[in-house]
Amino acid sequence: MSSVLEAKKRNEFQRSAKTELRESGNFPAVVYGKEVESESVFVNEGDFFKVIKEVGRNGVISLAVDGKQHNVILHDYQQDPIKNYIVHADFLAVDLSSEMTSNVRVDLEGEAAGAKEGGVVQQPLFELSVTAKVSEFPESVAVDVSNLNIGDSLSISDIRNSQPFTINHEDDEVIVSVLAPRVEEASEETNQEASEAETETEAKAEQE
């Protein structure tokens, strides 16, 4: 079920109007889609963050523009890099039965067995491109790593069939792996350096 976000039509576009919006806790946005005429609106920032927290970055929002409801997703937004307030947002009107493709984060669950033995967990893929119905689009993909020992890895092929959506990656792409401890490697390098230093010292002593 989508969360409702109130929006109002925006009719003034001067710089002073934008400043006034900002000062009143709102920001400008636009809503558009195949069967929706592009419309400039403004949204309360506090309400916006509350709804995004409820539905997630790719979740469906019921955008109420002066009482008229639109099922939308947050297509894009710009955020001030210093003050972190929302500068502008784009809401895309969608058909809940249609499919969409977007990136979702990968959440590792559990502690790898190999990590308990000193292994190092490496995660090459932090996001996955997936395709799913708009109404069923996931916020993230959970990957259980608890059974991974040192030297083990999980690839796309290991999780593809257990997901109710399409993963747009090759089967052999590695999501996460557990590497052998780096302490041994560092120790070997230290011993090698010590050996080279000792050899150099002996050589100098012979020359003297």
TrEMBL record:
Part of the 50S ribosomal subunit; part of the 5S rRNA/L5/L18/L25 subcomplex. Contacts the 5S rRNA. Binds to the 5S rRNA independently of L5 and L18. Residues 183-208 are annotated as: Disordered. GO terms for cellular component: cytosolic large ribosomal subunit. Coiled coil: none annotated. Residues 186-200 have a biased composition (Acidic residues). It comes from Pseudobacillus wudalianchiensis. HAMAP family: Ribosomal_bL25_CTC. One of its GO terms (biological process) is translation. Transmembrane segments: none annotated. Residues 100-182 form the Large ribosomal subunit protein bL25 beta domain. PANTHER family: RIBOSOMAL PROTEIN L25/GLN-TRNA SYNTHETASE, ANTI-CODON-BINDING DOMAIN-CONTAINING PROTEIN, RIBOSOMAL PROTEIN L25_GLN-TRNA SYNTHETASE, ANTI-CODON-BINDING DOMAIN-CONTAINING PROTEIN. This is Large ribosomal subunit protein bL25. GO terms for molecular function: 5S rRNA binding; structural constituent of ribosome. This is one of the proteins that binds to the 5S RNA in the ribosome where it forms part of the central protuberance. Belongs to the bacterial ribosomal protein bL25 family. CTC subfamily. InterPro entries: Rbsml_bL25/Gln-tRNA_synth_N (IPR020056), Ribosomal_bL25/Gln-tRNA_synth (IPR011035), Ribosomal_bL25_b-dom (IPR020057), Ribosomal_bL25_C (IPR037121), Ribosomal_bL25_long (IPR001021), Ribosomal_L25_dom (IPR029751), Ribosomal_uL5_bac-type (IPR020930). Keywords: Ribonucleoprotein, Ribosomal protein, RNA-binding, rRNA-binding. Residues 5-91 form the Large ribosomal subunit protein bL25 L25 domain.
